């Protein structure tokens, strides 16, 4: 299948969140491909998981999340050795994808990924499903109940392949609804939050705020909050598409 018709969903389990102090201890992947009918679907033959030797002990606080032990990764390949073959498969990919892809990108550097483009299914979910009660991989899983998602295959949570498998179902549906280029464009921007995430206005939709309150959020410390508040201001002025609408031509990148 041509590279332009394949996206590889990646999920990492790590010793922590900040390389180089932390490293990868497991990688999982699941490919999503474009069929002859023009619909994206999961490739049942293109998935897997591999343990990775992080080169340091796994802290108990992260063992408690993914339950990967030091003895599981002992003798496994190191990240720099195994990453290129998974991130850059022989058949090629048009993009890599992950849920909250900024985390995976800390470890999957351009050198290892070959400068691949990324889709963030979290950012795309904010746009396409703004009424979801939450936007984590698992909340979306049970709020949406994606067609064809096999419950046992998507478990346990916080292991690399099951999480990649669940994310791939979100990606498939996002691609079929909005298209590849739109997802790439949204992923290159900050997250467009549908609701205020904290403070006295927590849980309120931006459209419910008055103009003065909205302007206060444009100086918030959080990039996504600033972007979302500014987006509502521009939407009121007719300058930006509402969530779920593809960006105008010329605003893709």
UniProtKB/TrEMBL annotation:
Residues 217-253 are annotated as: Disordered. One of its GO terms (molecular function) is 3'-5' exonuclease activity. This is Exonuclease. Residues 6-180 form the Exonuclease domain. Residues 217-226 have a biased composition (Basic and acidic residues). Pfam families: RNase_T (PF00929). One of its GO terms (cellular component) is cytosol. Gene3D superfamilies: Ribonuclease H-like superfamily/Ribonuclease H. Keywords: Exonuclease, Hydrolase, Nuclease. GO terms for biological process: DNA replication proofreading. The keyword Protein transport does not apply.
């Amino acid at each position: 299948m041509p590279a332009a018709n394949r996206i590889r969903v990646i999920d990492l389990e790590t010793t922590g969140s900040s390389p180089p102090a932390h490293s990868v201890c497991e990688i999982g992947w699941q490919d999503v491909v474009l069929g002859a009918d023009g619909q994206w679907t999961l490739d049942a033959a293109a998935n897997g998981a591999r343990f990775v030797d992080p080169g340091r002990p796994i802290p108990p606080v992260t063992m408690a999340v993914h339950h990967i032990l030091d003895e599981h990764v002992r003798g496994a390949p190191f990240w720099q050795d195994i990453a290129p073959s998974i991130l850059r498969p022989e058949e090629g990919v048009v993009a890599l994808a992950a849920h909250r892809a900024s985390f995976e990108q800390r470890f999957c550097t351009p050198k290892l990924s070959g400068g691949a483009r990324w889709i963030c299914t979290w950012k795309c979910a904010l746009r396409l499903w703004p009424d979801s009660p939450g936007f984590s991989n698992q909340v979306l899983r049970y709020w949406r109940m994606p067609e064809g998602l096999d419950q046992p295959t998507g478990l346990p949570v916080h292991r690399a392949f099951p999480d990649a498998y669940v994310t791939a179902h979100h990606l498939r549906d996002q691609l079929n609804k909005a298209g590849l280029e739109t997802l790439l464009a949204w992923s290159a921007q900050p997250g467009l939050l549908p609701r205020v995430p904290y403070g006295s206005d927590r849980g309120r939709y931006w459209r419910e705020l008055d103009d003065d309150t909205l302007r206060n959020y444009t100086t918030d410390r959080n990039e996504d909050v600033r972007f979302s508040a500014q987006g509502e201001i521009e939407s009121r002025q007719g300058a930006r598409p509402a969530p779920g609408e593809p960006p105008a031509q010329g605003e893709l990148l």
